[in-house]
Amino acid sequence: MDLTAPTAALAAAAADLVRLVPGKLVDPVLSGVLLTATAAGVELGASDRERTARVSCPALVHTDGQVLVPAKPLAETLRALTEPEVRLVVEGNRLAIRAEGARFALPLLDHTLHPGVTSVSGSGGVVSGASLATALSTVASTAARDEALPVFTGVRLRSEDDRLVLRATDRYRMAIASLPWAADGEVDVMVPATLLVEVAKQVSGVGQVRLVAAANQFAASWGQTAVTTAVLDGTYLSETKLALSDVDTRVVVDADALAAATRRVALYSDARGVVKLEVGDSEVRLRATDQNAGEAEESVKTTVSGGRTSPAYQSRYLLDALRPFAGQRVELAIQPGMRATVLTAVDPGEVELRYILMPMLPPKA
Fold this sequence. Notes:
This protein is of the alpha+beta class. It is built from 6 helices and 27 strands.
């Protein structure tokens, strides 16, 4: 194999690939990048047997070929180069990375042992990259990170008429986002949230993303990039199992003002980080107390309808719930007792978001 490519483009392709498939260090083959050079350019591929990705890059190919080399050293070397072009050429049992006045060489791994990069064909649809990134940045962050509970570590993507609905929960909160999409079939899959967090970062600036589901696999493709993954069992995940019909208090408040007050008051919260939200006639008063830290309270002006109540929330979860509504007015639909509170934007945009937050036992006086 022998090719010349723009350094910046090749470095970006390698970096994107490594983030999509970090690799398994215990197996050098699964930590490698498969480089395939043809007349069309060079394709970089990776697989850990559960997840695969491929990124294409333009290149002037002098000699076709396919090699497998360690992925992270390749990505880090390309990122460090400042020359506009770089040459990759096989020299014996090494892949030489050549730039003006410099040569770096990576060992060749046995590419015949690599599982290859799969593709998924099936039903799916197309969504806006920016809208998908907005939805995923909130929803994926609410999934559990505890691998001991894998059923809570994913995001459920389900087509509902002309909308794609995303849901995730860690049992203490749930985020639901709905966005328009052009479908050619139905989709209902549970996708690992760790992958979708990275997808969100990479698609925020692209026009369209195609999503496909088939045979216990999920695929997303955009531009010169495609990624596939095995799916989780997530058919259970639905907000219909939560009691959301007994709202007796509605509070409309500036999300930024409430978040800022929460951060300040939470400095005086107990070990659980719990703050109490007391609803008045035209304000909410945040309170926190701790035997050692002291106590704090702060009022925020609001529009209130319905009864008066005083739910308590873990401050970091309340801040997470308010974050996607930054710069907007948010409505808190509060249910009595220990039932969930639902946060929604007063003026939703193309991506409609609902954040369901479970209350906590209030701090002891």
